TrEMBL record, chain A:
Residues 4-234 form the ABC transporter domain. Belongs to the ABC transporter superfamily. Keywords: ATP-binding, Nucleotide-binding, Transport. The keyword Phosphoprotein does not apply. This is Sn-glycerol-3-phosphate import ATP-binding protein UgpC. Transmembrane segments: none annotated. It comes from Mesorhizobium abyssinicae. InterPro entries: AAA+_ATPase (IPR003593), ABC_transporter-like_ATP-bd (IPR003439), ABC_transporter-like_CS (IPR017871), ABC_transpr_MalK-like (IPR015855), ABC_transpr_MalK/UgpC-like (IPR047641), Mo/tungstate-bd_C_term_dom (IPR008995), NA-bd_OB-fold (IPR012340), P-loop_NTPase (IPR027417). CDD domains: ABC_MalK_N (cd03301).
Automatic annotation (TrEMBL), chain B:
PANTHER family: BLL4140 PROTEIN, SN-GLYCEROL-3-PHOSPHATE TRANSPORT SYSTEM PERMEASE PROTEIN UGPA. It comes from the Bacteria. It is found in: Cell inner membrane; Cell membrane. This is sn-glycerol-3-phosphate transport system permease protein UgpA. It is a multi-pass membrane protein. The lineage of its organism: Bacteria, Pseudomonadati, Pseudomonadota, Alphaproteobacteria, Hyphomicrobiales. The keyword Membrane applies.
Length: 366, 294
């Protein structure tokens, strides 16, 4: 059990800086998920915590002790790798027990602890097998066992589920969650899969381009994205974004074809902004309904439980999620209705969230 | 399932195999067969037929102390040069694998010695190891008489071992480096997370995973040290001093072509062939068991 404190951590390779000053506090026993697209620096950050990458700047402290110069083995972290990284020439039991063997734990105690871990992970009947003879899910469990047996202060997961098929991934996801509840060790989990991130995290860290975009509970990140990037990255289908400009009497959207009557709230006339609305927050109504936006249906995606309806709004793509079985046919006209409370505003220049509109006044109908 | 090309008629398959079979027959089975035949006969040195003598050639060779001396020298040479070439290459490759900057250059530079013809290489080493002028002259200056491959059999043996190892270090290095690089980085990292230090990681993870390569190189190096040593011995020591470096392959040449004992040389080459076959079988039977194939 340990807390992790990350202060202004940077990483550069030659001249390329890939992590730009990350600050993060992870409480003891917390399950933190770092979410971001490929190449955002999330794995690099995790590997810096593990000690597998050198830290170019800033400090990482585990339990208040700065670990920048410590070897991986001295940091008390265990890691589950994306490709499992099982030792192919060792049996499952040897794989799980390797860290104890290195630490010089006597054979009898080692065997006992391997048994205990194998029981938790339901690997008892596989202990003599080589990794080659295991299925993907079993290998995943061995990798977890190898991390668990050391009773580490910190668990690090580097996209451990991305090599599994969809069904197994859901199953392993809940197993990881259960395991965390049972061991309640501090865990840092890196993924690019937002469903994994939302379901596992106590707290979510969204990264982009080597920077932290937002830190918060999954619900916070979903309902109040701190930036345009977070808004479009978290949630599927992605949040709809309409480009607009601040005018004297409010906002002009989509190159002036639509108006939104809100107070400028101190923003200079002509500033570019983006208005976001989640596809789930839009209702489909009959075309011509007062206060609704008229659009044309482009495409309907059947998801079983619901449908994603892609519409064309004055040339801008816009999506709507509906659970109703009856849905308009492609090519037909529809009205889009939503409440002002569901709108998100972002600066087009910096991409950061603007709360001025919501705070200042109710938004009249579009 | 693996897809296999199949031929509707077996004769077509045979046709495809014929060029290769022909080559192997012409350049291996036929000469080997001839050698077996000659080894059982007594050839006239100046031509004019031969007489069947059965196993007499083998009996006289095996009764000769010189021949046993040659076998011993060959085994010592094989063991030392293989050991030296493999250990040096392994260490170099392990170090290179950890610090990869410029590894492309190493790869090119280190394969070159293997491309050098043995006599040329031997000539260079003869100069380098010359007791009066070469690199070892410095040592002789400090300890007079310490090094003289022209008089001391051990020194001569050390010289040809050094030359042969030098040639094979580069060859082995390429294979070792490729084997090290084929080990996924994450395995090493996982071992580091498991608390294993650099040396421990080498013995527990890297070494077992490159055993297929080690085994392959062991077989190749030993086989080559029996056969490829001829040029080096001929130029550097010509089997001397006092037969101390008269390796089996060199003795075949000198007995056959200098001593004109064709039948004895043929018998010796059969023995050498059998020895290599036995050694290779031994390696496959007893050492390969400890190899981990992934």
């Amino acid at each position: 059990m340990a807390s992790i404190t990350i202060r202004d951590v940077r990483k550069s390779y030659a001249k390329m800086q890939v992590v730009h000053g990350v600050n993060l506090d992870i409480a003891s026993g917390e399950f933190v998920v770092i979410l971001g697209p490929s190449g955002c620096g999330k794995s690099t950050l995790l590997r810096m915590i593990a000690g597998l990458e050198e830290i170019s700047g800033g400090t990482i402290a585990i339990d208040g002790k700065v670990v920048n110069t410590l070897e991986p083995r001295e940091r008390g972290c265990a890691m589950v790798f994306q490709n499992y990284a099982l030792y192919p020439h060792m049996s499952v039991a040897q794989n799980i027990g390797y860290s104890l063997k290195v630490a010089g734990v006597p054979v009898a105690e080692r065997a006992q602890r391997i048994q205990a871990v194998a029981r938790i992970l339901e690997l008892e009947h596989l202990l003599d097998r080589k990794p080659m003879a295991l299925s993907g899910g079993q290998r995943q469990r061995v990798a977890m066992g190898r991390a668990m047996i050391r009773e580490p202060k910190v668990f690090l997961f580097d996209e451990p589920l991305s090599n599994l098929d969809a069904k197994l991934r859901v199953q392993m996801r809940s197993e990881i969650r259960k395991l965390h509840r049972r061991l309640s060790a501090t865990s840092v989990f890196v993924t690019h899969d937002q469903v994994e991130a939302m379901t596992l995290a106590d707290r979510l860290v969204v990264m982009n381009g080597g920077r932290v975009e937002q830190v918060g509970t999954p619900a916070e990140v979903y309902s109040r994205p701190a930036s345009r990037f977070v808004a479009t990255f978290v949630g599927a289908p992605a949040m709809n974004m309409l480009e607009g400009e601040v005018t004297l009497d409010g906002l002009s959207l989509l190159g002036g074809s639509r108006k939104l009557n809100v107070s400028r709230a101190g923003l200079p006339v002509g500033s570019k902004i983006a208005v976001g609305i989640r596809p789930e927050a839009v209702r489909l109504v009959a075309p011509g309904t007062p206060g609704a936006l008229d659009a044309t249906v482009d495409l309907v995606e059947e998801l079983g439980a619901g449908r994603v309806i892609y519409v064309d709004l004055d040339g801008a793509a816009f999506s709507v999620v509906t659970s109703e079985t009856a849905h308009p046919a492609p090519g037909s006209a529809v009205g889009l209705q939503f409440s002002e409370a569901d709108l998100h505003f972002f600066s087009s220049e910096t991409g950061s969230r603007l709360d001025v509109f919501k705070a200042s006044m109710p938004v009249p109908a579009l | 399932m693996e897809k296999r090309v199949t031929f509707s008629r077996w004769s077509i398959g045979i046709l495809f195999a014929v060029p290769q079979l022909l080559l192997i027959f012409t350049f291996f089975y036929w000469p080997a067969g001839q050698a077996v035949y000659w080894s059982l006969t007594l050839q006239q040195p100046w031509g004019g037929g031969n007489i069947w003598v059965g196993l007499d050639n083998f009996r006289s060779i095996l009764a000769n102390a010189d021949y046993w001396n040659s076998i011993t020298a060959s085994l010592v040479f094989a063991a030392c040069s293989t050991g030296l070439a493999m250990v040096i290459a392994l260490v170099l490759a392990a170090l290179t694998d950890r610090q990869l900057a410029g590894s492309r250059l190493y790869r090119v530079v280190l394969i070159w010695p293997y491309g050098i013809a043995a006599p040329a290489l031997a000539m260079a080493f003869r100069f380098i190891l010359a007791p009066e002028a070469g690199f070892m002259a410095v040592v002789n200056q400090v300890w007079p008489g310490f090094w003289d491959p022209g008089l001391d059999g051990t020194d001569a043996m050390a010289s040809i071992i050094a030359a042969f190892s030098w040639k094979y270090v580069g060859y082995n290095f390429i294979f070792f480096l490729a084997a090290f690089q084929a080990i996924p980085r994450s395995l090493i990292e996982a071992a580091a997370m498991d608390g294993s230090g650099v040396l421990r990681r080498f013995w527990d993870i890297q070494f077992p995973l490159i055993t297929p390569t080690i085994f392959f190189l062991l077989v190749i190096n030993i086989t080559e040290s029996f056969q490829d040593s001829f040029g080096i011995v001929d130029i550097m020591t010509a089997g001397g001093p006092a037969n101390s470096t008269n390796l089996m392959v060199y003795k075949i040449y000198s007995d056959g072509f200098k001593g004109l004992d064709y039948s004895g040389a043929a018998a010796q080459s059969i023995i050498l062939m059998l020895l290599i076959i036995v050694l290779t079988i031994f390696q496959f039977r007893f050492i390969e068991r400890r190899v981990h194939y992934r």
